[in-house]
Design a protein that fits this description.
about 550 residues, mainly alpha, about 0% strand, globular
Length: about 550
Amino acid sequence: MELTAAHWTYLAGVVVIIGVMIARRNVVVPAVVATFFTAWFYSGSLVKGLAAIFSASLTAAGELFSIFLIIALITALLGAMRAMGAERRMVVPFRALMRNGRMAFLALAGVTYFISLFFWPTPAVPLIGAILLPAAIRAGLPAVSAAAAIAIAGQGMALSSDYVIQVAPGLSAKAAGVETSAVADRAMVLSVITGVVALTLVYLKGRRSFGTVSEEHRLRWEAEAEAVSADGGGESLGGTGAGRPARTAAASGGSAGTATKLLSPPGGAGPGGSGTDSATGSGSGSGTDRQPDSAPGPDSCDTPGVPVRRSRAFALIVPLTFAAIVGYMLLGKFTGAVTEVQGGEAAGLVGGVAMLLLFAAVFCTDGKDGLTTAADHVVDGLVFAFKAMGVVVPIAGFFFLGNVDFITQITGVQDDDPPALLFDLVTAVDQYIPDVGFIVAFAILIIGMITGLEGSGFAGLPLTGSLSGSLGPAADVDPATLAAVGQMGSVWTGGGVLIAWSSLLAVAGVARVPVQEIVRHCFVPVVAGLVTATALATVLF
């Protein structure tokens, strides 16, 4: 197909968006402007160009609403657990594993990964910072190594695969034109490879500074943090900062602070914060079923007025239920024992179970008032979902415009043979692109890392997905594999590991370590992991 003005305008839009990302600015405005001009030149109508601004976002919102809904339901469930103190109880037993610095490093990484798979890293960071981090420091783990373990396991491994909630794979797969499950499976493998390599190198890098249990470690850590704050270095510690909720992941600057505020544990403003939030429920229970009225101590996870037994029960039931769902999906995928969960069924299964767990939690906590509080939690979840993911909608709308399946719907031009703008551009320069899967995979990785520089991690997934769908067939590489590679580059970079202006600020805040120090500590190990995973991707898939 001969390239038209619409093709060149679309290409200019892609270039500008990448440039704005590199400059660490929000790309919504250039995405909308590029959508307008591309649709105008394609349709030849100024009116259709203006209408396409709305239609592109509407189309993207329709395609992505299932993602918004699953985020909302998971967030609502976590809010209900937070009201009864159950989310803090989930991690308390792991403190007993922290007998020295080495065990603390492994326990911190493992718990962060497990919690972040189900609830995203944003709520996991303040939770782990309040409960596990002081215990890890006391066990002899340096604060910078603890912060690196949390960032790599949560914002890196868990968020880059997003295997349970499947927001990231959904974005990549939509743009690449492949099944979400295919991208999710490959992303899970690549995220584990990257994370294992990165964690191993970080462990080896800091192992000589790992100590043994001593209360002096924690006291020194707190004293150093207070000294830095007194010297005016509070901003370098991160606070709740800018960037994406880890996990949102998937949002642009400024959302990490909102997410941390929304999803922080009861009274858990920082490490060692005592739980003082009360969520008095009207559910019945015996006197022995409720905690004493005295104020909780620094290490307590009880909330006044909430049944202790029920809180403990949900702290066990919720993670075991989600673990069972993952086990069921894996069992169906690799055996014939159960029916395989395909396509959007995985998100539907997780969302449905989350809703039922939410109802059970609120009625156990609030009794008849649960009818009201359940709705409140759902509304809070929807608000969070749109704050975290809303910025992706107009960006995805622009890249959907370059897809042959959506251009007619967006522009309103009835064409029997509509152009695939991005694919046509790639085809035009196909002779200059090496048809070598290894080279194409690393090119997609680099593009993903570039798009992640804007601090979101998810905003660039429509671009890497679209390029994967266009470049994959020519290089004889499965587009799902390339989409997973691009997802690794984008999320590991912007999701909160490799750049300081992301939700890594939240990790720096709870660990009380300058954010740039964490970046320097993680950079080489994470890049080594990404290179290893990308090289193996072309061999494994």
